[in-house]
Every structure is written in structure tokens, then in C-alpha cells.
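dumping this here so i dont lose it
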């Protein structure tokens, strides 16, 4: 039995956008750098470029001509701090613009959320995290891409933002991360572990 060509999700998405050119369509790929993008995009690699939109190309495994509509926007997200992932090749960098998303601790949304928790321990912990992030960003072996994000602290309520919950985040999520960051600098791990723990005492 031979291989059969199958319409993928991106193909179907483009067809939807093609039939609705009055609206913009956003195709989001989480952790885009986990796959071999040259193989994933294949012949579409050229068609996703902004100046090639709407230009038809005959697909390799079918007789059909295909194009990526101009109202399709591809958003690829990745965590640059994950050392186990390969860097994106230059062919992909040429075809995408890059935007760095920083931790949202200073956004109005997060500050409103923080105020709603009515927790002094939470406020002290976030203040400590901001100081820690400054240290991480200035570290020549780490940098801004390794800063601790706000997602560790989301989803709490005034009832669940307890010292026990915050301690659990510190002990089982943040300190293990610091041990990975500064595996060869134990004094930094001890110092910042103590600082984080002191915020919830």
C-alpha cells in the first residue's frame, strides 16, 4: 500500500481564508522551533513570504495549484530559553519578523490581578521576582530570554493565593529552575532561594 496525500490543517485553513477575504486569519504554531520547519513547510516555504502571497504553485504531490492568501498571518511562538532546541535556520529568519515578549509583571492586567488577590506575600514575591529577573537579564550566560515569566503566578484567587500555594511554586518550580540556570554557581542558587522563601514567611 502506497502513501496517500492528505489535506492538512494549514491547507484547510488557507482555503477558509481564501473564501473570506474580508477578514484576517491567524494561524498560530506553538513552540515552532520544535519541528524541522523546512520539512514541515516544504514547498510552501516560499509561498508564506509576503511578496509571494496569492501566487499559485503546483503542489508536489497533487495536480492542484495552491497559494497562501494575503489575509493569512502565521504566528510562530517559541521559548528561546530552551537550550535543547535547535536555532532557527536563516531561511526561516528571512521569512518572519521577530517580536520578543517580556514577562508581563508591569502590565495593567497583571497589576489588576495582583491587587485582586489582596495578598502581601504575593506582592513581596513578585517584587523579588522582578529583582531576580534583572539579575538573570544581566547574566552573560543567560540574558533576557531566561527571565521568569508571569505564567507561574496566574490562575490564583484571593482564596487560593495562600502561603502554602506560593511556597509550593517557589520550592517546586522556581528553585529547580534556578538550579538549572546556575548549576555551576551554587552561591547564587542559595542566595536567591533564600530571598524567594523569605517573601512568604
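and the seq i came up w/
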Amino acid at each position: 500500500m502506497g502513501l496517500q496525500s492528505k489535506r492538512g490543517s494549514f491547507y484547510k485553513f488557507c482555503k477558509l481564508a481564501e473564501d473570506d477575504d474580508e477578514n484576517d486569519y491567524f494561524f498560530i504554531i506553538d513552540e515552532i522551533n520544535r519541528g524541522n520547519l523546512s520539512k514541515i513547510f516544504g514547498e510552501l516555504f516560499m509561498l508564506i513570504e509576503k511578496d509571494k502571497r496569492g501566487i499559485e504553485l503546483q503542489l508536489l504531490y497533487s495536480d492542484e495549484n495552491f497559494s497562501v492568501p494575503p489575509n493569512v498571518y502565521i504566528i510562530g511562538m517559541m521559548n528561546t530559553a530552551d537550550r535543547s532546541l535547535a536555532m532557527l535556520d536563516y531561511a526561516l529568519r528571512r521569512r518572519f519578523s521577530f517580536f520578543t515578549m517580556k514577562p508581563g509583571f508591569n502590565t495593567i492586567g497583571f497589576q489588576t490581578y495582583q491587587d485582586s488577590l489582596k495578598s502581601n506575600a504575593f506582592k513581596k514575591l513578585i517584587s523579588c521576582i522582578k529583582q531576580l529577573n534583572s539579575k538573570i537579564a544581566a547574566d552573560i550566560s543567560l540574558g533576557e530570554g531566561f527571565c521568569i515569566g508571569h505564567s507561574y503566578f496566574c490562575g490564583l484567587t484571593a482564596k487560593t493565593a495562600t502561603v502554602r500555594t506560593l511556597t509550593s511554586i517557589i520550592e517546586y518550580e522556581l528553585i529547580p529552575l534556578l538550579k538549572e540556570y546556575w548549576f555551576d554557581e551554587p552561591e547564587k542558587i542559595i542566595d536567591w532561594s533564600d530571598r524567594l522563601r523569605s517573601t512568604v514567611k
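The longest helix spans residues 120-138.
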